[in-house]
Amino acid sequence: MLNEKKTIRAWCMYDWANSVYSLTITSAIFPIYYQAVAVNANGGDRVSFFGTEVVNSVLYSYALSASFLLVAIILPILSGIADYAGKKKFFLKMFMLIGSFSCIGLFFFTGKNIEWGILCSVMASVGYSGSLVFYDAFLNEIVTEDKRDIVSARGYSYGYLGSVILLVLNLVVIEMPNTFGLADAGIASRVAFLTVGVWWIGFSLYAIAKLPENPHGRKPEGHYLTNGYRELRNVWGQLKDMEGMRKYLLAFFFYNMGVQTVMYLAATFGSKELKMEASKLIMTVLLIQFVAIAGSYLFAFVSKKRGNIQSLLVMIVIWIVCCLYAYFVNQEIEFFALAAVVGLVMGGIQSLSRATFSKIMPPDTVDTASFFSFYDVTYNLSIVFGTFVYGYIEQVTGSMRNSTLALASFFIIGIIFLSQVKLKNASTQAA
């Protein structure tokens, strides 16, 4: 049944469950811990990875790129199988377990086993990213079109809030490890990775249990792989005739390169370029999360008044300004101010991008996972290119500041393509 409160709450709770990975592992504690322990015998940032010497931050950027590339390769066929067999919940649960147990595996990463740490971080990323396509696909099946902007924003706000709660609890332990019977902040950080995995599993199982099992009543016959491929090919055929969706995905590819790269590497930028203390970096991340809650609801309201495309264009312009400003940031107060603005547009652009795509999809389609696989493959490929280019430019020029200029160019290209998107839906097109 559409617009059922219990189902919507359960869907939002998966964001509450998995967003602890995004905050603790990708944005806050793990990047700082990684920078501290992934060093050579002399304390330098060049480490050995399977016999190859590489800068630790560059290695991390490349590892993230590899994880998203892997997801982009396997998602389309799995989404086709999920649509054909009515197995979205199965794949959602499978990727959730891969991601959460990989976070638990990070407990055993000490810095001396750099290969293990990279492997676990890659698989955690695969689990997180892989689960999103099946999670997103439920949006069209639980709410009507007029409520997707606000429900998408609600999901992200659940995620921002839940992740902050666990992060704060972990920070208390890290700041006072002896009080909790732990030797030092290092082991406390590793315990934090453990709690992320447990939190992710626990709340996910509740959320998944409440989501509809097979809302379209699909009854698979024959080979799953063959028919899954056929399902995907059918959606691809429809996509080729949908000019608005193609242009939107192209725009999303470019501007999301900038959004996600900023999210994944902001803490590293503050650490390396501004030499900020870990506590101040954590404060920055918390600031971004709280402001993002307001941003997601603010731009859901703006989209109701001005249309989704117009709202997205405004946010991308703000992102461009943020990237250009980041190049000149030298003071901590400037970094905090920039973080506040980034948080505002981060919450808005993430929730509204998902909701906009859900509105572009054919309203009567049963292949929601297959359609969203193109959205999420675009999402993952954009991160592959974004993090790779960011790391490559740093490696060549020796400065992360130069990489921020590349991010600005991604947003500019994105705004060019998005401005060409013409949609019939009045609530989605600019007013």
Automatic annotation (TrEMBL):
Major facilitator superfamily (MFS) profile domain mapped to chain residues: 1-426
Bilayer topology: Multi-pass membrane protein
GO cellular component: endomembrane system
Main location as per UniProt: membrane
InterPro entries the record matches: Atg22-like (IPR024671), ATG22/LtaA_families (IPR050495), MFS_dom (IPR020846), MFS_trans_sf (IPR036259)
Pfam families: ATG22
GO molecular function, one term: transmembrane transporter activity
TM region positions: 20-39, 59-78, 90-110, 116-135, 156-174, 186-209, 248-269, 281-300, 312-329, 335-353, 374-393, 405-423
Top-level taxon: Bacteria
Location in or out of the cell: Endomembrane system
Swiss-Prot/TrEMBL keywords: Membrane, Transmembrane, Transmembrane helix, Transport
Alphabetized PANTHER family for the sequence: AUTOPHAGY-RELATED PROTEIN 22
Protein name from the UniProt record: MFS transporter, UMF1 family
Species name: Ekhidna lutea
